[in-house]
Amino acid sequence: MALVLGIAGVVACEKVPEGFISDKFTYRPRPFNVTQGISAYSPAIEADGSTLPVKVKLLEIRDKSTGKVLDSNDLAPKEITVYLAELTSNDTTVELLNKKLARASKRPFEIVENGGRMVLSAATEYWNSGRYVFDVQVSNISGTRIIKNAGEIQVNPKVTYEVQRRTVTTSDNGSETNFQDVFAGGQMPMTVERDPAGPHKIIIKFKDRLGKSFNPAKGEVVYRGDRPHFQKYNPYFKEVRTDSTIEFGHPNLAKFPYFTVNGDVSSYYRIPAAFTTANRNVNATFAVTLYAGGTGRSP
Predict the structure, then answer these.
(1) β-sheet bridge partners, residue 103
(2) pLDDT, position 88
(3) Residue 127 phi, psi (nearest 5)
(4) Please, is 108 exposed, middle or buried when counting C-beta atoms within 10 Å of its C-beta (0-12, 13-18, 19+)?
(5) Phi, psi angles (nearest 5°) of residue 123
(6) Long-range CB contacts for residues 235-242, cutoff 8 Å, separation at least 24
(7) Does residue 140 sit in helix, strand or coil?
(8) Residues 169, 144 share a domain
(9) Contact, 130 vs 65, CB < 8 A?
(10) Which pLDDT tens digit goes with each residue over 80-107?
(11) What whole-number distance in Å separates Cα of residue 235 and Cα of residue 226?
């Protein structure tokens, strides 16, 4: 009887494990897609039923195709433009804009300790595009685990511009009537060129079918009534018209135009009928968003 009681006492004194920690932590989506130079944030690490809170530490990140480990220089803070406050439609001058912008050093990639969320800054512009994998250490009240290949990141090449619209029609001389498509589907031939080493400037050209530029300075390119045009999206710099171009300074924001008109960034221009062989107005509309500095030309 005494022997039975003694064994029961030993069992009763054993410490019951507190909480649970899995060995199957992972990140989703996999891969997590980002674009060079664009900030992004992932969901927290998936804990597979582990007791929360969970702390996460980055151990190593590698180029998946070569196995090369990113060193301290790859992960070191890099200088980028940051926003000190939200831009609003009242920030209509360079001076007001600059009060909300600053240069700061940010790491391209970090793991938030609490919960393990991935944070990628605009400093990924300094990384090569491609697929990366990384290992982490996770810990909670139950212990610690090393998770190899916990997540993957697909760094896509930087997009310097995006064309959302490019249409052209003709209309009756002096009016907004009898519209006709010039090309099948109304799509206007359009090219965008960028000089990354050039000054922050936007240059717009309108050319005829023989490649000759219309002359904005002499009224060969005009606005279309009260419809938006590029100056509406760029109040920071005054429009300059030459014998072949319409030019603007560029505030070099991560995305420009930053503001929209009725949810759109379309610009409406017209070559009046007097300057066309068909004696009809030529109505050109385009919408382009820029994601990089330098000199952008749209001939």
Answers:
(1) 81
(2) 87
(3) -90, 160
(4) buried
(5) -70, -5
(6) 235/92, 235/93, 236/92, 236/93, 236/94, 236/97, 237/94, 241/216, 241/217, 242/216, 242/217
(7) strand
(8) no
(9) yes
(10) 888 899 988 899 999 999 999 998 999 9
(11) 16
- How far, in Å, CA of 104 to CA of 107, rounded? 10
- Residues 255, 202, single domain; the answer is yes
DSSP class of 288: E
Place of tokens 């938030």: 112
Helices (H), 125-243: 230-233
Give the per-residue pLDDT at 4. Answer: 47
Lookup: tokens for 113: 């300790």
- Which of 156, 181, 215 delimits the end of a domain? 156
Cβ count near 294 (within 10 Å): 16
Question: Which domain CATH number covers 148?
Answer: 2.60.40.2710
**Residue 124, domain member (yes or no):** yes
Amino acid (1-letter code) at residue 282: V
Domain count, the chain: 2
Q: What is the domain range of residue 260? A: 161-298
Name residue, tokens 């400037």: 201
Q: Other C-beta atoms within 10 Å of 119: how many?
A: 15
Cα–chain center distance at 175: 39
